[in-house]
Design goal:
7 helices; six-stranded parallel β-sheet; single chain; alpha/beta; Rossmann fold; 6 strands; 40% helix
């Protein structure tokens, strides 16, 4: 199997998501969820992935389709097609799986995944934030980040 096949296998549809969730639950693994557009992997977006991955044993990333992003952010958005955004996220070591979503209300996804934490951009739509608040019902947490804020580098080699 080549490296591209490995990445392609990390991008999953609904049935594969159900199978993976059953496996993760069987293994007693906590699932955290990062939800958003992920159009550009800027430092704030990488920080979002890091924070989400630290909240569970496995990290599921839900990527909004071009259609959804266009409705929320207007014409010209996103810059990159959702398949390309999903592939970029799948290449990240901290990401266990990527699932593309095309519904404005992520309540069904939240109910299915029952994540220990949801990490999203502070600009999430109202319908999304209401769905994310369901996580509190089972003791989870919701983290809303400003992905546009500057991030300080911690390595001297980045100066």
């Amino acid at each position: 199997m080549d490296k591209k096949d490995i990445l392609d296998k990390k991008i999953i549809g609904r049935e594969e998501l159900k199978r993976l969730l059953a496996y993760w639950n069987f293994k007693g693994q906590k699932v955290s969820l990062a939800y958003g557009t992920f159009d550009v992997l800027k430092p704030g977006t990488i920080d979002m992935i890091i924070q989400a991955s630290s909240k569970g044993d496995v990290l599921l990333v839900a990527v909004k389709t071009d259609e959804l992003v266009g409705k929320h952010k207007g014409a010209g958005n996103p810059t990159n097609h959702h398949c390309n955004r999903a592939l970029a996220l799948a290449s990240l070591q901290l990401v266990s799986a990527v699932h593309v979503v095309n519904t404005e209300d992520p309540s069904e996804l939240i109910d299915l995944v029952k994540p220990t934490a949801v990490v999203c951009c502070k600009h999430a739509a109202d319908v999304e934030t209401r769905a994310f608040d369901k996580v509190y019902e089972w003791g989870g947490e919701v983290i809303r980040l400003d992905t546009d804020r500057p991030i300080k580098y911690h390595k001297d080699s980045c100066d």
